[in-house]
Amino acid sequence: MNVIQELFGVADKSVLITGGSRGIGKAIAEAFVKAGARVYVSSRDAESCNETAKELSAFGSCTALPVNVASADDRHRLAVELSKHEKALNVLINNAGAIWAAPLAEYPESGWDKVFDLNVKGTFFLIKELAPLLTAGATAADPARIINVGSIDAFHIPGHETYAYTSSKAALHQLTLHLASQLASKHVTANVIAPGMFPSKMLAGTLERKGIEAMVEPIPLKRLTGPSDMAGAAIYLASKAGAYVTGAVLPVDGGYATTL
After folding, report:
1. Which one of the listed residues 40, 165, 236, 256 is annotated catalytic?
2. pTM of the complete model beyond 0.85
3. What are the start-end ranges of the H helices in the chain?
4. How far apart are CA 166 and CA 160, in angstroms?
5. What are the beta bridge partners of residue 16?
6. 163 counts as catalytic
7. pLDDT tens-digit profile of 127-165?
8. Under CATH, which number does the domain 10-252 receive?
């Protein structure tokens, strides 16, 4: 085994990725599948989830477990279904998320609740459901990993009115640090990857309206966050190279946070 495989290899690890059917989640899933992990993708859109699993299965092991992480019943069902495939979960990547934009005077309570129910509450209670699987195979040398996908918007305030989104991501960052402290004794790490502007469905409208050049102008490295940027960060945290990292928030934003 060469040093790259030894440090960054994730072959044979079991990996669950929520929001794994498109965007950041799909990019991360593809990287893990190609690296030899057993990957499970989850999404509330069953058709999209199944299509992604079928597509990625051409490169390795990828199974669809479609659920709505915002639903308590679905979270429990996901844990039950996953336990039929795996005795232990090595890596949990919480990527499923929602956004809601509206002027302050018009911001609906239903929109706020939708964002927090998925981005914070859903993530926390899914971790609770999966805790037995996460601890089942965790060791001091090779901890189980929780990787939460946060956002640069948790500490870099956007110009648009996405109040619930920025607040929920800040809450998720703090929740992750709290989990890192509590779960360390069980050999489970918890970290955040905080992407900058990723060309996802969430950003599509802004990109179309402003154009790519205007979007990247304030970013020091002058480009958007790409699929390999997110996938590489996730593999690092899930591999031996990241085994001693916990309670960290890793910005993957091209230096955008430095422009505050």
Report:
1. 165
2. yes
3. 3-8, 23-34, 46-56, 72-85, 109-116, 123-136, 163-183, 201-210, 212-216, 227-238
4. 10
5. 40, 92
6. no
7. 999 999 999 999 999 999 999 999 999 988 888 899 999
8. 3.40.50.720
